[in-house]
Amino acid sequence: MSFTLPRYFLRFHLSFTSRTASTRAKNNHGYLFLAPKANTTKFTTASIPGDKPQKLSAEELLVVVGGGAAGVYGAIRAKTVASNLNVLVIEKGKLLSKVKISGGGRCNVTNGHCADNLVRYHYPRGNKELRGSFFNVHGPTDTMSWFVDKGVDLKTEDDGRVFPVSNNSSSVIDCLLSEAKCRGVSLQTEKLVTSASASASGKFLLKIEKRTLKSVELVEAYYLLIASGSSQQGHNLAVQLGHSIVDPVPSLFTFKIEDAQLVELSGVTFSKVIVKLKLENVQRNIPQLTQVGPMLVTHWGLSGPAILRLSAWGARYLYSSGYKGKLIVDFVPDLHVEDLKSMLSQQKNRFLKQKVLNSCPMELQLVKRFWKYILDREGLVGDTLWASVSNSSIVSIANLLKHCTFEVKGKGQFKDEFVTAGGVPLSEIHLNTMESRIQPNLYFAGEVLNVDGVTGGFNFQNAWSGGYIAGSTIGRLAAGNANLVGAP
């Protein structure tokens, strides 16, 4: 579609209604979308709370691309700092959709076991760059305080994950949408920002298409916050405005293991294992390719926090290796291999006439199905008695429990919570303001940047922190502009 961009003006319609002392006054400001001549001009009204009517200028419009955690949080923060600012959030789908499904529908808000100055260690992409003030400005404790202050009671589970006490993501969603409405943020869905350019005056000219109708709207804004997650939309807009993109690849995924016997263990969990990833294209030692934590056997392979963390740190290495490699698992990480051998030898001597399958050492706390899997891999059938187990077999069983190797044949997607490694390079962003180093008044927050965290609430914390910093910066600039406009 081609069209000529008409000269653009923002027109504001002001109205003021006096209320009682207990009710705040409210200004209604309409900002104009100009459409191509073939379509009808459309108006959208945003309600802006305030103590008195203010004359607004074209500079006081912020458009946020993306109605996820970073976008909505940033919009609320900008409007909180500058009530004079018009804030419009454009979302191509449903608002806060990833918030809704996070944590199995409970919403893993953040992680409560990490001090704000230590959070950065949980980001495979961004851990070096985020060593500054990023999380000190607005970290996990600030996030939790914000939601609690807004009426969302939170709880911290044993592994540090923070959830609403309701165990329902709707508590978080309702809080954010209610606060956005209260502040006067305009939220529009089923719309896609398809192009962005900066005019000679420094303002942004945006082309917005409605997904359900073949209509196009144009809007001019002084501030632009791109918080569109890993969507191609945000990457395209960033490139149009002069930024580069680190090619996105999947992060946080499960491992596909081709092992017919392992499939029979689907549902078996291990509270603590050590997993180590070996890839042909990675010869040097990378400490993060060894992880400790819970693991789950699924019908397609292996999952759980330890595997997901491993997939995040190894995301780019796994991508370049075609998601093929060797996974070495230590199922009894708290036991030295020599102690394990001694334990198995003692078990043999105590239960010579018992079947090995029915007599697993209790100290190992292994479920019978998994014990059978280990014995099968060693070639010991179910009727074998301990008396028939050779010392070499005991050594082999111990080594297998400490160094059990699996062939990784591919990846699975971690439910619907798809996270990517890649996006706008952090070197192109001022992390203390979230403003672009390339284009003034352009801001980024959330997963559109080349930042991704491990499982446990860290990706949301990146969104809250980035959105808060960007919103604060934009709000301060807008509030300063309003003071200049109102000065004699």
TrEMBL record:
Residue ranges of domain RsdA/BaiN/AoA(So)-like insert in the record: 249-419
RsdA/BaiN/AoA(So)-like Rossmann fold-like domain span: 62-472
Keywords: FAD, Flavoprotein
Cited SUPFAM superfamilies: FAD/NAD(P)-binding domain (SSF51905), HI0933 insert domain-like (SSF160996)
Pfam annotation, one family: HI0933_like_1st
Domain of life: Eukaryota
Cofactor: FAD
Keyword tRNA processing: no
Claim: Flavoprotein is one of the keywords in the record: yes
Name under which the protein is recorded: FAD-dependent oxidoreductase 2 FAD binding domain-containing protein
The organism of origin for this protein: Gossypium tomentosum
Lineage: Eukaryota, Viridiplantae, Streptophyta, Embryophyta, Tracheophyta
